[in-house]
Design goal:
The chain is α+β, with helices and mostly antiparallel strands. It has a single domain, classed as Nuclear Transport Factor 2, Chain: A (Roll), CATH 3.10.450. 23% of the residues lie in helices and 36% in strands. β3 and β4 form a beta hairpin. The protein is globular and about 40 Å long.
Amino acid sequence: MAENTFSPGDPPAIDSEDRFVADLPPVIAKFVRATNSGDLQLLLETFVDDALVNDQLHDYWGLQEISTWALRDVVAEGLRLKIVGVIHHYGHSIVTAHVDGIFDKRGLPDPLVLAFYFSSQAEKIVQLIILRNHAGI
């Protein structure tokens, strides 16, 4: 596996031909842009004040906890998302992405495929659950 040479402040490596981005609700597209650019403030703007994020089976409630999570696990790890699937289901959006960054990848598959289960209300994310879904892998 090649070593990554980018840092969280580098411009995002986004596939401009990504046909799935057009299928995303605006707030989720904004979340992806914020994640790929390492923009903590923009990322936090996508959430309601009392939102829930569950990542790696740990709950982060409200903007203060989400900010701590995002700084540590998104921005500092140089997280990059390449969207490979989008399903809209009864007002929810399930986004499948290949995830890359400068985190420790030992023992992880290449590519690392995660499912992001978004629930939104009034153009803000109210809940995000992130899972490594083994179905279809």
